[in-house]
Amino acid sequence: MEVYLDEWYDNEAEDAMIEEEVEIPDLMQPHIEGPADVHVFDTDLSFSIVGFKAGVFVVNSSKVKITKTTDTSCVIDILAGKSFSFTLTFKAEDGTEINKVINVKSF
Fold first, then answer.
1. Does residue 14 sit within a domain?
2. Residue 3 falls within a domain, yes or no?
3. Which terminus in the chain has less CB density within 10 A, N or C?
């Protein structure tokens, strides 16, 4: 008699209990302040740069619209109804880029 044991490491219940690691920026370094997790159709979300005096904010998604901007801050609206992620980038006058990944969650 031969016995064959095969193991699977997939455990969906256990995987669901694992919390995602939250990236905490080094507050002594330039970074973008604002929420890392937002919801679909959120409006008037405010973000600001710490460590630079002037630059431009850009997003890499057509599902997000920058509605107001200054040299150091911006306000965005989420236009989509599904979960996704996008990157908010601050481009400083000296060419430095600071990125913040923002997760859009559905209810």
1. no
2. no
3. N
